[in-house]
Amino acid sequence: MAADRTTYRNFALAAWLLVLAAYGLDLASMQRHVFWSPDEGGKLLQARSIRARRGLSREIVYPGAVLDPELRMYAAKIDARSALFPIPRSDGGVSFHWPIWFPLASKLPLALFGVSGIYLLPLLAGLWTAALSGRLAAEVDPVLEAPAVLLVGLATPIYFYSLCAWEHTLATAFATLSALSFVRGGGRLAGLLWSLPAAAAALLLRLEMLALPVALVAAWGWLRWLRSRGSSAAAGGAVRSRVALAAAVALTVALVVAFALVLPERHQAKLGAVPTRWDTILEYPLVLTEILISSSRSMGPQLPSWSWAALLAGVAAAFAAPLAPRRSLRLGLTAVSLTAVLLAAGEALAQPETYLCMHGLLLIAPFLIICPLALRGVARAPDARRSALVAIALTYAAAAVVVVSANSIDAGGSIKQWLEWGPRYLLAVYPLAAVVALVAARELWATSRDSPGRWLVVPVLLLAIAGFLFEQRGVAQATRRRAMLAEWQQAVTGHGPVLTDIWWLPGSLADFYSQQPVLLMRARKYAYYWRGRARANGVRRFAFISLTQPEPDVFPGFAQAGEIETVGLAYIARYEVLERRGRGAGGES
Protein backbone atom coordinates (compact mmCIF):
# COMPACT_ATOMS: atom_id res chain seq x y z
CA MET A 1 0.00 0.00 0.00
CA ALA A 2 2.91 2.36 0.79
CA ALA A 3 4.33 1.75 -2.67
CA ASP A 4 0.94 2.47 -4.19
CA ARG A 5 0.66 5.74 -2.28
CA THR A 6 4.13 6.75 -3.44
CA THR A 7 3.13 6.02 -7.02
CA TYR A 8 -0.04 8.08 -6.68
CA ARG A 9 1.93 10.98 -5.16
CA ASN A 10 4.37 10.85 -8.07
CA PHE A 11 1.47 11.00 -10.51
CA ALA A 12 0.10 13.98 -8.59
CA LEU A 13 3.47 15.73 -8.75
CA ALA A 14 3.62 15.19 -12.51
CA ALA A 15 0.07 16.58 -12.82
CA TRP A 16 1.01 19.62 -10.76
CA LEU A 17 4.06 20.28 -12.93
CA LEU A 18 1.81 20.13 -16.00
CA VAL A 19 -0.49 22.73 -14.44
CA LEU A 20 2.55 24.86 -13.59
CA ALA A 21 3.76 24.69 -17.18
CA ALA A 22 0.34 25.67 -18.55
CA TYR A 23 0.05 28.66 -16.20
CA GLY A 24 3.60 29.81 -16.85
CA LEU A 25 3.32 29.63 -20.63
CA ASP A 26 -0.02 31.42 -20.72
CA LEU A 27 1.08 34.20 -18.39
CA ALA A 28 4.33 34.65 -20.32
CA SER A 29 2.35 35.08 -23.56
CA MET A 30 0.14 37.86 -22.12
CA GLN A 31 0.74 41.59 -21.90
CA ARG A 32 1.17 41.97 -18.14
CA HIS A 33 1.30 45.77 -17.88
CA VAL A 34 -2.38 46.06 -18.82
CA PHE A 35 -5.32 44.34 -17.18
CA TRP A 36 -8.30 42.30 -18.34
CA SER A 37 -10.44 43.86 -15.61
CA PRO A 38 -10.06 47.37 -14.17
CA ASP A 39 -10.37 45.83 -10.71
CA GLU A 40 -6.98 44.19 -11.24
CA GLY A 41 -5.45 47.56 -12.05
CA GLY A 42 -7.08 48.98 -8.94
CA LYS A 43 -5.15 46.42 -6.88
CA LEU A 44 -1.89 47.58 -8.49
CA LEU A 45 -2.66 51.21 -7.67
CA GLN A 46 -3.67 50.25 -4.16
CA ALA A 47 -0.34 48.45 -3.70
CA ARG A 48 1.55 51.47 -5.00
CA SER A 49 -0.46 53.72 -2.68
CA ILE A 50 0.91 51.96 0.42
CA ARG A 51 4.16 53.43 1.72
CA ALA A 52 6.39 52.31 4.59
CA ARG A 53 6.95 55.56 6.45
CA ARG A 54 6.99 55.23 10.22
CA GLY A 55 4.58 52.37 9.79
CA LEU A 56 2.21 52.24 6.86
CA SER A 57 1.06 55.42 5.17
CA ARG A 58 -1.40 55.68 2.30
CA GLU A 59 -1.56 58.17 -0.51
CA ILE A 60 -3.15 58.38 -3.92
CA VAL A 61 -1.13 57.54 -7.02
CA TYR A 62 -2.23 60.21 -9.49
CA PRO A 63 0.36 62.00 -11.65
CA GLY A 64 -2.55 63.97 -13.10
CA ALA A 65 -2.88 65.84 -9.78
CA VAL A 66 -0.39 68.42 -11.10
CA LEU A 67 -2.93 69.36 -13.77
CA ASP A 68 -6.02 68.52 -11.71
CA PRO A 69 -5.32 69.58 -8.09
CA GLU A 70 -9.04 69.53 -7.25
CA LEU A 71 -9.18 65.86 -8.32
CA ARG A 72 -12.23 66.58 -10.45
CA MET A 73 -10.90 64.27 -13.19
CA TYR A 74 -9.43 61.68 -10.84
CA ALA A 75 -10.71 58.22 -11.78
CA ALA A 76 -11.62 57.07 -8.26
CA LYS A 77 -15.35 57.52 -8.59
CA ILE A 78 -17.23 55.28 -11.02
CA ASP A 79 -20.62 56.40 -9.77
CA ALA A 80 -22.17 57.60 -6.55
CA ARG A 81 -21.76 54.24 -4.81
CA SER A 82 -18.45 52.72 -5.81
CA ALA A 83 -14.85 53.46 -6.63
CA LEU A 84 -11.82 51.71 -8.10
CA PHE A 85 -8.88 53.46 -6.51
CA PRO A 86 -7.79 54.89 -3.16
CA ILE A 87 -10.05 57.85 -2.29
CA PRO A 88 -8.72 61.00 -0.58
CA ARG A 89 -10.64 61.93 2.56
CA SER A 90 -11.39 65.44 3.77
CA ASP A 91 -9.07 64.93 6.77
CA GLY A 92 -6.10 64.34 4.47
CA GLY A 93 -6.14 60.55 4.81
CA VAL A 94 -6.90 57.94 2.18
CA SER A 95 -9.68 55.33 2.10
CA PHE A 96 -9.34 52.02 0.28
CA HIS A 97 -12.14 50.41 -1.68
CA TRP A 98 -10.92 46.89 -0.84
CA PRO A 99 -9.18 45.18 2.08
CA ILE A 100 -5.50 46.03 2.26
CA TRP A 101 -4.03 42.54 2.64
CA PHE A 102 -3.55 41.41 -0.97
CA PRO A 103 -2.01 44.71 -2.15
CA LEU A 104 0.19 44.78 0.95
CA ALA A 105 1.41 41.21 0.33
CA SER A 106 2.11 42.17 -3.30
CA LYS A 107 4.55 44.94 -2.35
CA LEU A 108 7.59 42.65 -2.26
CA PRO A 109 6.85 40.85 -5.59
CA LEU A 110 6.30 44.26 -7.19
CA ALA A 111 9.63 45.50 -5.86
CA LEU A 112 11.42 42.40 -7.13
CA PHE A 113 9.76 41.89 -10.53
CA GLY A 114 8.11 45.18 -11.43
CA VAL A 115 4.50 45.20 -12.59
CA SER A 116 4.72 41.47 -13.42
CA GLY A 117 5.11 40.83 -9.69
CA ILE A 118 1.43 41.62 -9.10
CA TYR A 119 0.62 38.27 -10.76
CA LEU A 120 2.94 36.17 -8.58
CA LEU A 121 0.63 35.60 -5.61
CA PRO A 122 -2.45 34.71 -7.72
CA LEU A 123 -0.36 32.29 -9.80
CA LEU A 124 1.17 30.57 -6.77
CA ALA A 125 -2.22 30.50 -5.04
CA GLY A 126 -3.80 28.79 -8.05
CA LEU A 127 -1.06 26.17 -8.03
CA TRP A 128 -1.48 25.77 -4.26
CA THR A 129 -5.23 25.33 -4.71
CA ALA A 130 -4.66 22.59 -7.29
CA ALA A 131 -2.23 20.81 -4.95
CA LEU A 132 -4.59 21.13 -1.96
CA SER A 133 -7.43 19.76 -4.08
CA GLY A 134 -5.30 16.73 -4.81
CA ARG A 135 -4.65 16.19 -1.13
CA LEU A 136 -8.36 16.66 -0.41
CA ALA A 137 -9.21 13.94 -2.95
CA ALA A 138 -6.50 11.67 -1.54
CA GLU A 139 -8.18 11.79 1.87
CA VAL A 140 -11.03 9.83 0.30
CA ASP A 141 -9.15 7.78 -2.28
CA PRO A 142 -5.39 8.14 -3.09
CA VAL A 143 -6.00 7.23 -6.74
CA LEU A 144 -7.95 10.48 -7.18
CA GLU A 145 -5.11 12.84 -6.22
CA ALA A 146 -3.59 13.36 -9.68
CA PRO A 147 -6.97 13.64 -11.46
CA ALA A 148 -8.05 16.24 -8.88
CA VAL A 149 -4.94 18.34 -9.50
CA LEU A 150 -5.58 18.29 -13.25
CA LEU A 151 -9.32 18.83 -13.01
CA VAL A 152 -9.17 21.78 -10.61
CA GLY A 153 -6.04 23.28 -12.13
CA LEU A 154 -7.00 23.07 -15.79
CA ALA A 155 -10.78 22.60 -16.13
CA THR A 156 -12.22 25.12 -13.66
CA PRO A 157 -12.01 28.93 -13.42
CA ILE A 158 -9.07 28.47 -11.03
CA TYR A 159 -7.08 28.34 -14.28
CA PHE A 160 -8.33 31.70 -15.53
CA TYR A 161 -8.09 33.57 -12.24
CA SER A 162 -4.57 32.31 -11.56
CA LEU A 163 -3.57 34.56 -14.48
CA CYS A 164 -5.33 37.65 -13.09
CA ALA A 165 -3.99 40.21 -10.61
CA TRP A 166 -6.69 39.44 -8.07
CA GLU A 167 -6.88 37.89 -4.62
CA HIS A 168 -9.61 35.41 -5.62
CA THR A 169 -7.28 32.42 -5.96
CA LEU A 170 -5.46 33.29 -2.72
CA ALA A 171 -8.75 33.38 -0.80
CA THR A 172 -9.77 30.14 -2.52
CA ALA A 173 -6.51 28.46 -1.53
CA PHE A 174 -7.14 29.30 2.15
CA ALA A 175 -10.74 28.10 1.82
CA THR A 176 -9.53 24.79 0.34
CA LEU A 177 -6.96 24.45 3.12
CA SER A 178 -9.75 25.02 5.63
CA ALA A 179 -11.88 22.33 4.01
CA LEU A 180 -8.91 19.96 3.96
CA SER A 181 -8.44 20.40 7.73
CA PHE A 182 -12.12 19.75 8.27
CA VAL A 183 -12.12 16.61 6.12
CA ARG A 184 -8.92 15.24 7.69
CA GLY A 185 -10.65 15.55 11.03
CA GLY A 186 -13.53 13.47 9.71
CA GLY A 187 -15.91 16.37 10.22
CA ARG A 188 -15.51 16.15 13.99
CA LEU A 189 -15.04 19.04 16.42
CA ALA A 190 -11.23 18.93 16.33
CA GLY A 191 -11.26 19.16 12.55
CA LEU A 192 -13.71 22.07 12.74
CA LEU A 193 -11.47 23.98 15.14
CA TRP A 194 -8.36 23.34 13.01
CA SER A 195 -10.23 24.60 9.94
CA LEU A 196 -11.14 28.00 11.36
CA PRO A 197 -7.74 29.80 11.15
CA ALA A 198 -7.54 29.20 7.38
CA ALA A 199 -11.19 30.26 7.08
CA ALA A 200 -10.28 33.49 8.89
CA ALA A 201 -7.45 34.15 6.42
CA ALA A 202 -9.84 33.63 3.49
CA LEU A 203 -12.36 35.94 5.14
CA LEU A 204 -9.82 38.73 5.51
CA LEU A 205 -9.22 38.61 1.76
CA ARG A 206 -12.78 38.37 0.41
CA LEU A 207 -16.08 39.49 1.91
CA GLU A 208 -18.05 36.62 0.36
CA MET A 209 -15.91 34.16 2.36
CA LEU A 210 -18.25 35.00 5.23
CA ALA A 211 -20.09 31.90 4.02
CA LEU A 212 -17.16 29.61 4.87
CA PRO A 213 -17.14 29.58 8.70
CA VAL A 214 -20.93 29.39 8.65
CA ALA A 215 -20.74 26.39 6.30
CA LEU A 216 -18.11 24.68 8.45
CA VAL A 217 -20.28 24.86 11.55
CA ALA A 218 -23.35 23.77 9.56
CA ALA A 219 -21.47 20.79 8.08
CA TRP A 220 -20.19 19.76 11.50
CA GLY A 221 -23.66 20.03 13.03
CA TRP A 222 -25.22 18.06 10.17
CA LEU A 223 -22.67 15.25 10.46
CA ARG A 224 -22.98 15.19 14.24
CA TRP A 225 -26.75 14.86 13.91
CA LEU A 226 -26.47 12.08 11.32
CA ARG A 227 -24.04 10.11 13.48
CA SER A 228 -26.07 10.48 16.66
CA ARG A 229 -29.44 9.72 15.05
CA GLY A 230 -30.72 6.45 16.32
CA SER A 231 -27.63 5.79 18.41
CA SER A 232 -27.88 4.46 21.96
CA ALA A 233 -25.38 6.96 23.30
CA ALA A 234 -25.84 8.09 26.88
CA ALA A 235 -27.56 11.36 27.62
CA GLY A 236 -24.21 12.81 28.62
CA GLY A 237 -23.03 12.42 25.05
CA ALA A 238 -25.97 14.48 23.80
CA VAL A 239 -25.18 17.17 26.37
CA ARG A 240 -21.54 17.26 25.33
CA SER A 241 -22.63 17.53 21.70
CA ARG A 242 -24.80 20.57 22.47
CA VAL A 243 -22.01 22.22 24.45
CA ALA A 244 -19.54 21.61 21.63
CA LEU A 245 -21.95 23.00 19.06
CA ALA A 246 -22.57 26.09 21.19
CA ALA A 247 -18.81 26.62 21.55
CA ALA A 248 -18.25 26.26 17.81
CA VAL A 249 -21.09 28.66 17.00
CA ALA A 250 -19.75 31.19 19.54
CA LEU A 251 -16.27 30.90 18.01
CA THR A 252 -17.66 31.47 14.53
CA VAL A 253 -19.69 34.49 15.64
CA ALA A 254 -16.59 35.94 17.31
CA LEU A 255 -14.63 35.39 14.09
CA VAL A 256 -17.28 37.17 12.01
CA VAL A 257 -17.49 40.09 14.46
CA ALA A 258 -13.70 40.47 14.56
CA PHE A 259 -13.67 40.41 10.76
CA ALA A 260 -16.36 43.10 10.54
CA LEU A 261 -14.22 45.42 12.69
CA VAL A 262 -11.38 45.46 10.13
CA LEU A 263 -13.58 45.77 7.04
CA PRO A 264 -13.24 48.79 4.77
CA GLU A 265 -16.14 51.21 5.09
CA ARG A 266 -17.78 50.10 1.85
CA HIS A 267 -17.76 46.43 2.86
CA GLN A 268 -19.17 47.30 6.28
CA ALA A 269 -22.05 49.00 4.49
CA LYS A 270 -22.61 45.98 2.23
CA LEU A 271 -22.54 43.61 5.19
CA GLY A 272 -24.98 45.80 7.10
CA ALA A 273 -27.35 45.88 4.13
CA VAL A 274 -27.79 42.10 4.01
CA PRO A 275 -30.56 41.92 6.67
CA THR A 276 -32.59 44.46 4.69
CA ARG A 277 -32.60 42.35 1.53
CA TRP A 278 -34.68 39.37 2.64
CA ASP A 279 -37.57 40.61 0.50
CA THR A 280 -35.54 39.38 -2.48
CA ILE A 281 -36.18 35.78 -1.42
CA LEU A 282 -39.11 35.79 -3.87
CA GLU A 283 -36.64 36.36 -6.70
CA TYR A 284 -34.47 33.36 -5.78
CA PRO A 285 -35.86 30.88 -8.36
CA LEU A 286 -34.66 33.05 -11.24
CA VAL A 287 -31.49 34.01 -9.39
CA LEU A 288 -30.64 30.38 -8.70
CA THR A 289 -31.12 29.54 -12.36
CA GLU A 290 -28.65 32.24 -13.36
CA ILE A 291 -26.14 31.40 -10.63
CA LEU A 292 -26.20 27.63 -11.17
CA ILE A 293 -26.50 27.54 -14.95
CA SER A 294 -25.69 30.76 -16.77
CA SER A 295 -26.99 34.20 -17.62
CA SER A 296 -28.29 35.42 -20.95
CA ARG A 297 -27.00 38.91 -20.25
CA SER A 298 -23.74 40.77 -19.77
CA MET A 299 -21.49 39.74 -22.63
CA GLY A 300 -21.99 35.99 -22.22
CA PRO A 301 -22.95 33.37 -24.82
CA GLN A 302 -26.49 33.71 -26.06
CA LEU A 303 -27.81 30.20 -25.50
CA PRO A 304 -30.74 29.00 -27.62
CA SER A 305 -33.94 27.96 -25.87
CA TRP A 306 -33.22 24.26 -26.26
CA SER A 307 -29.89 24.67 -24.43
CA TRP A 308 -31.62 26.29 -21.48
CA ALA A 309 -34.22 23.51 -21.45
CA ALA A 310 -31.48 20.87 -21.61
CA LEU A 311 -29.55 22.45 -18.74
CA LEU A 312 -32.63 22.73 -16.55
CA ALA A 313 -33.60 19.14 -17.32
CA GLY A 314 -30.05 18.01 -16.62
CA VAL A 315 -29.98 19.70 -13.22
CA ALA A 316 -33.38 18.26 -12.28
CA ALA A 317 -32.35 14.74 -13.32
CA ALA A 318 -29.02 15.04 -11.47
CA PHE A 319 -30.67 15.91 -8.16
CA ALA A 320 -33.34 13.26 -8.65
CA ALA A 321 -30.81 10.49 -9.31
CA PRO A 322 -29.58 9.95 -5.71
CA LEU A 323 -33.21 9.73 -4.55
CA ALA A 324 -34.10 6.96 -6.99
CA PRO A 325 -35.03 3.70 -5.18
CA ARG A 326 -33.59 1.40 -7.88
CA ARG A 327 -30.08 1.39 -9.30
CA SER A 328 -31.34 1.13 -12.88
CA LEU A 329 -33.46 4.26 -12.45
CA ARG A 330 -30.56 6.02 -10.78
CA LEU A 331 -28.27 5.22 -13.71
CA GLY A 332 -30.94 6.28 -16.19
CA LEU A 333 -31.39 9.68 -14.56
CA THR A 334 -27.63 10.13 -14.41
CA ALA A 335 -27.37 9.34 -18.11
CA VAL A 336 -30.07 11.91 -18.89
CA SER A 337 -28.34 14.61 -16.83
CA LEU A 338 -24.91 13.97 -18.36
CA THR A 339 -26.22 13.88 -21.92
CA ALA A 340 -28.30 17.06 -21.53
CA VAL A 341 -25.44 19.10 -20.07
CA LEU A 342 -22.96 17.72 -22.59
CA LEU A 343 -25.16 18.89 -25.47
CA ALA A 344 -25.62 22.36 -23.95
CA ALA A 345 -21.90 22.75 -23.20
CA GLY A 346 -21.07 21.69 -26.75
CA GLU A 347 -23.45 24.32 -28.09
CA ALA A 348 -21.79 27.07 -26.03
CA LEU A 349 -18.32 25.95 -27.09
CA ALA A 350 -19.31 25.81 -30.75
CA GLN A 351 -20.61 29.37 -30.91
CA PRO A 352 -18.36 31.28 -33.31
CA GLU A 353 -19.07 34.67 -31.77
CA THR A 354 -16.57 35.97 -29.26
CA TYR A 355 -18.04 36.43 -25.80
CA LEU A 356 -16.20 38.22 -23.03
CA CYS A 357 -17.83 36.57 -20.01
CA MET A 358 -19.03 33.16 -18.84
CA HIS A 359 -21.53 33.36 -16.02
CA GLY A 360 -23.01 30.50 -14.08
CA LEU A 361 -21.46 27.89 -11.83
CA LEU A 362 -22.28 24.84 -13.96
CA LEU A 363 -21.86 25.71 -17.62
CA ILE A 364 -18.19 26.66 -17.40
CA ALA A 365 -17.35 23.46 -15.45
CA PRO A 366 -20.08 21.10 -16.73
CA PHE A 367 -18.63 17.95 -15.16
CA LEU A 368 -20.02 19.23 -11.82
CA ILE A 369 -23.41 17.87 -12.92
CA ILE A 370 -22.43 14.49 -11.45
CA CYS A 371 -21.89 15.92 -7.94
CA PRO A 372 -25.42 15.21 -6.58
CA LEU A 373 -24.79 11.49 -7.04
CA ALA A 374 -22.29 11.68 -4.17
CA LEU A 375 -25.06 12.76 -1.77
CA ARG A 376 -26.38 9.21 -1.72
CA GLY A 377 -25.37 7.37 1.39
CA VAL A 378 -23.68 10.25 3.27
CA ALA A 379 -25.28 9.11 6.51
CA ARG A 380 -24.35 5.45 5.91
CA ALA A 381 -20.88 5.96 4.44
CA PRO A 382 -18.31 4.04 6.50
CA ASP A 383 -15.67 6.59 5.51
CA ALA A 384 -16.05 9.63 7.76
CA ARG A 385 -13.79 11.70 5.51
CA ARG A 386 -15.96 11.11 2.47
CA SER A 387 -19.02 12.22 4.42
CA ALA A 388 -17.16 15.28 5.68
CA LEU A 389 -16.10 16.20 2.13
CA VAL A 390 -19.63 15.99 0.74
CA ALA A 391 -21.04 17.84 3.75
CA ILE A 392 -18.67 20.83 3.58
CA ALA A 393 -18.98 21.05 -0.22
CA LEU A 394 -22.78 21.13 -0.02
CA THR A 395 -23.07 23.52 2.93
CA TYR A 396 -20.46 25.91 1.54
CA ALA A 397 -22.04 25.99 -1.92
CA ALA A 398 -25.45 26.72 -0.37
CA ALA A 399 -24.14 29.36 2.03
CA ALA A 400 -22.03 31.05 -0.66
CA VAL A 401 -24.98 31.31 -3.04
CA VAL A 402 -27.10 32.91 -0.30
CA VAL A 403 -24.38 35.37 0.76
CA VAL A 404 -23.53 36.39 -2.79
CA SER A 405 -27.10 36.71 -4.02
CA ALA A 406 -28.30 38.60 -0.93
CA ASN A 407 -26.50 41.72 -2.15
CA SER A 408 -26.54 41.05 -5.89
CA ILE A 409 -30.17 41.06 -7.01
CA ASP A 410 -30.98 44.07 -9.16
CA ALA A 411 -34.24 45.99 -9.44
CA GLY A 412 -35.46 43.65 -12.15
CA GLY A 413 -35.17 40.62 -9.89
CA SER A 414 -32.18 39.19 -11.73
CA ILE A 415 -28.63 38.61 -10.52
CA LYS A 416 -26.17 41.39 -11.25
CA GLN A 417 -23.37 40.37 -13.57
CA TRP A 418 -19.77 41.47 -13.59
CA LEU A 419 -16.79 41.06 -15.86
CA GLU A 420 -15.87 37.49 -14.96
CA TRP A 421 -14.95 34.16 -16.48
CA GLY A 422 -16.93 31.95 -14.18
CA PRO A 423 -18.59 33.36 -11.04
CA ARG A 424 -15.52 34.65 -9.20
CA TYR A 425 -17.52 35.28 -6.02
CA LEU A 426 -18.17 31.53 -5.92
CA LEU A 427 -14.67 30.51 -6.96
CA ALA A 428 -13.99 28.52 -3.79
CA VAL A 429 -16.89 26.20 -4.65
CA TYR A 430 -14.94 24.72 -7.57
CA PRO A 431 -12.13 22.84 -5.74
CA LEU A 432 -14.60 21.24 -3.33
CA ALA A 433 -17.20 20.43 -5.98
CA ALA A 434 -14.61 19.11 -8.44
CA VAL A 435 -13.31 16.64 -5.84
CA VAL A 436 -16.87 15.58 -5.04
CA ALA A 437 -17.45 15.04 -8.77
CA LEU A 438 -14.38 12.79 -8.93
CA VAL A 439 -15.59 10.80 -5.90
CA ALA A 440 -18.99 10.36 -7.56
CA ALA A 441 -17.40 9.25 -10.85
CA ARG A 442 -15.09 6.83 -9.02
CA GLU A 443 -18.01 5.29 -7.12
CA LEU A 444 -20.06 5.07 -10.32
CA TRP A 445 -17.23 3.12 -11.94
CA ALA A 446 -16.65 0.89 -8.92
CA THR A 447 -20.29 0.02 -8.23
CA SER A 448 -21.36 -0.55 -11.83
CA ARG A 449 -18.85 -3.39 -12.29
CA ASP A 450 -19.44 -4.82 -15.76
CA SER A 451 -22.81 -3.19 -16.26
CA PRO A 452 -23.48 -0.48 -18.88
CA GLY A 453 -23.33 2.02 -16.04
CA ARG A 454 -19.55 2.12 -16.38
CA TRP A 455 -19.95 3.77 -19.75
CA LEU A 456 -21.36 6.81 -17.97
CA VAL A 457 -17.79 7.69 -17.00
CA VAL A 458 -17.18 8.53 -20.68
CA PRO A 459 -19.53 11.57 -20.78
CA VAL A 460 -18.06 12.69 -17.44
CA LEU A 461 -14.63 12.68 -19.10
CA LEU A 462 -16.01 14.58 -22.09
CA LEU A 463 -17.52 17.17 -19.76
CA ALA A 464 -14.14 17.57 -18.04
CA ILE A 465 -12.57 18.18 -21.46
CA ALA A 466 -15.30 20.75 -22.15
CA GLY A 467 -14.32 22.53 -18.93
CA PHE A 468 -10.71 22.64 -20.11
CA LEU A 469 -11.79 24.03 -23.49
CA PHE A 470 -13.85 26.74 -21.79
CA GLU A 471 -10.75 27.78 -19.84
CA GLN A 472 -8.70 27.85 -23.01
CA ARG A 473 -11.31 30.06 -24.62
CA GLY A 474 -11.28 32.42 -21.64
CA VAL A 475 -7.50 32.66 -21.53
CA ALA A 476 -7.42 33.37 -25.27
CA GLN A 477 -10.07 36.08 -24.81
CA ALA A 478 -8.11 37.69 -21.98
CA THR A 479 -4.92 37.54 -24.06
CA ARG A 480 -6.63 39.31 -26.97
CA ARG A 481 -8.16 41.94 -24.72
CA ARG A 482 -4.82 42.69 -23.10
CA ALA A 483 -3.15 42.91 -26.50
CA MET A 484 -5.78 45.44 -27.59
CA LEU A 485 -5.26 47.50 -24.44
CA ALA A 486 -1.51 47.44 -24.99
CA GLU A 487 -2.09 48.80 -28.51
CA TRP A 488 -4.22 51.61 -27.09
CA GLN A 489 -1.52 52.47 -24.59
CA GLN A 490 1.14 52.50 -27.29
CA ALA A 491 -1.00 54.76 -29.48
CA VAL A 492 -1.33 57.48 -26.80
CA THR A 493 2.21 57.27 -25.44
CA GLY A 494 4.36 60.30 -26.15
CA HIS A 495 1.55 62.74 -26.95
CA GLY A 496 1.32 64.52 -23.61
CA PRO A 497 -1.47 64.03 -21.05
CA VAL A 498 -4.18 61.53 -21.89
CA LEU A 499 -7.90 62.22 -21.51
CA THR A 500 -10.60 59.58 -21.78
CA ASP A 501 -14.33 59.19 -21.25
CA ILE A 502 -14.00 55.40 -20.77
CA TRP A 503 -14.58 55.00 -17.02
CA TRP A 504 -12.76 51.67 -16.76
CA LEU A 505 -9.72 52.56 -18.86
CA PRO A 506 -7.57 54.09 -16.08
CA GLY A 507 -7.91 50.81 -14.20
CA SER A 508 -7.09 48.65 -17.20
CA LEU A 509 -4.04 50.85 -17.92
CA ALA A 510 -3.13 51.17 -14.25
CA ASP A 511 0.64 50.89 -14.72
CA PHE A 512 0.57 53.63 -17.38
CA TYR A 513 -1.92 55.64 -15.31
CA SER A 514 0.38 55.60 -12.29
CA GLN A 515 3.31 57.03 -14.26
CA GLN A 516 1.86 59.88 -16.34
CA PRO A 517 -1.23 62.13 -16.33
CA VAL A 518 -4.40 60.26 -17.35
CA LEU A 519 -7.61 62.17 -16.64
CA LEU A 520 -11.18 60.92 -16.76
CA MET A 521 -13.69 63.19 -18.51
CA ARG A 522 -17.04 62.00 -17.15
CA ALA A 523 -19.12 64.64 -18.96
CA ARG A 524 -18.78 67.31 -21.64
CA LYS A 525 -18.55 70.06 -19.02
CA TYR A 526 -15.13 68.80 -17.97
CA ALA A 527 -13.73 69.95 -21.34
CA TYR A 528 -14.04 73.55 -20.15
CA TYR A 529 -12.41 72.75 -16.83
CA TRP A 530 -9.61 71.01 -18.73
CA ARG A 531 -9.09 74.02 -20.99
CA GLY A 532 -8.43 76.24 -17.99
CA ARG A 533 -6.13 73.75 -16.31
CA ALA A 534 -4.20 73.08 -19.53
CA ARG A 535 -3.61 76.78 -20.15
CA ALA A 536 -2.55 77.37 -16.57
CA ASN A 537 0.05 74.61 -16.83
CA GLY A 538 1.30 75.34 -20.35
CA VAL A 539 -0.04 72.12 -21.88
CA ARG A 540 0.42 72.36 -25.64
CA ARG A 541 -0.89 68.98 -26.73
CA PHE A 542 -2.72 65.94 -25.43
CA ALA A 543 -4.39 62.71 -26.61
CA PHE A 544 -8.01 61.67 -26.20
CA ILE A 545 -9.24 58.07 -26.35
CA SER A 546 -12.91 57.08 -26.58
CA LEU A 547 -15.17 54.27 -27.71
CA THR A 548 -17.21 56.77 -29.76
CA GLN A 549 -15.86 59.11 -32.43
CA PRO A 550 -15.14 62.53 -30.86
CA GLU A 551 -17.12 65.54 -32.08
CA PRO A 552 -15.02 68.18 -33.87
CA ASP A 553 -15.51 70.84 -31.19
CA VAL A 554 -15.36 68.64 -28.11
CA PHE A 555 -12.36 70.54 -26.68
CA PRO A 556 -12.77 74.34 -26.95
CA GLY A 557 -9.45 76.11 -27.39
CA PHE A 558 -7.75 73.11 -28.99
CA ALA A 559 -7.53 71.95 -32.58
CA GLN A 560 -7.41 68.37 -33.75
CA ALA A 561 -3.92 67.42 -34.96
CA GLY A 562 -4.13 64.95 -37.85
CA GLU A 563 -6.73 62.31 -38.51
CA ILE A 564 -8.55 60.37 -35.82
CA GLU A 565 -6.88 56.98 -35.47
CA THR A 566 -8.91 53.81 -35.01
CA VAL A 567 -7.15 51.21 -32.87
CA GLY A 568 -9.22 48.14 -32.25
CA LEU A 569 -12.51 49.37 -30.78
CA ALA A 570 -11.20 52.78 -29.75
CA TYR A 571 -10.95 56.17 -31.42
CA ILE A 572 -7.75 58.06 -30.63
CA ALA A 573 -7.51 61.77 -31.40
CA ARG A 574 -4.63 64.15 -30.77
CA TYR A 575 -5.09 67.83 -30.03
CA GLU A 576 -2.90 70.91 -29.99
CA VAL A 577 -3.56 74.31 -28.42
CA LEU A 578 -4.99 76.94 -30.76
CA GLU A 579 -2.89 80.05 -31.31
CA ARG A 580 -4.76 83.20 -30.32
CA ARG A 581 -3.70 86.09 -32.53
CA GLY A 582 -3.93 89.77 -31.55
CA ARG A 583 -5.08 92.66 -33.77
CA GLY A 584 -1.54 93.76 -34.58
CA ALA A 585 1.03 92.13 -36.79
CA GLY A 586 2.32 90.11 -33.92
CA GLY A 587 0.45 87.45 -32.05
CA GLU A 588 0.31 85.68 -28.74
CA SER A 589 -0.32 82.13 -27.85
Structural notes for this entry:
This protein has 589 residues and is α+β, with helices and mostly antiparallel strands. The protein has helices at residues 2-29, 38-49, 101-105, 107-113, 120-138, 145-155, 158-161, 168-184, 189-205, 211-228, 235-261, 265-273, 284-292, 305-320, 327-350, 384-406, 429-448, 457-492, 505-508, 510-513, 526-536, and strands spanning 50-52, 56-58, 87-88, 94-95, 498-500, 518-520, 541-546, 558-560, 565-567, 570-577. The strands form three sheets. Strands 5, 6, 7, 8, 9 and 10 form a six-stranded mixed sheet that branches. A two-stranded antiparallel ribbon has the order 1-2. A two-stranded antiparallel ribbon has the order 3-4. A hairpin with a 5-residue loop joins strand 3 (87-88) and strand 4 (94-95).
The dominant shape is: globular
**Class computed from helices, strands and strand pairing:** alpha+beta
Mean pLDDT: 85
What's the β-strand tally? 10
Q: Which spans of ≥5 residues are poorly predicted at pLDDT below 50?
A: 581-589
Per DSSP, the total helix count is 21
Percent range for β-strand residues: 5-15%
What characterizes the major β-sheet?
A: 6 strands, mixed
Q: What structural keywords apply?
A:
589 residues; alpha+beta; 6-stranded mixed beta sheet; 54% helix; globular
In summary, what is this structure?
With 589 residues, this protein is of the alpha+beta class. It contains 21 helices and ten strands.
Topology diagram in text:
Blueprint: H1 2-29, H2 38-49, E1 50-52, E2 56-58, E3 87-88, E4 94-95, H3 101-105, H4 107-113, H5 120-138, H6 145-155, H7 158-161, H8 168-184, H9 189-205, H10 211-228, H11 235-261, H12 265-273, H13 284-292, H14 305-320, H15 327-350, H16 384-406, H17 429-448, H18 457-492, E5 498-500, H19 505-508, H20 510-513, E6 518-520, H21 526-536, E7 541-546, E8 558-560, E9 565-567, E10 570-577
Parallel strand pairs: 5-6, 5-7
Antiparallel strand pairs: 1-2, 3-4, 7-10, 8-10, 9-10
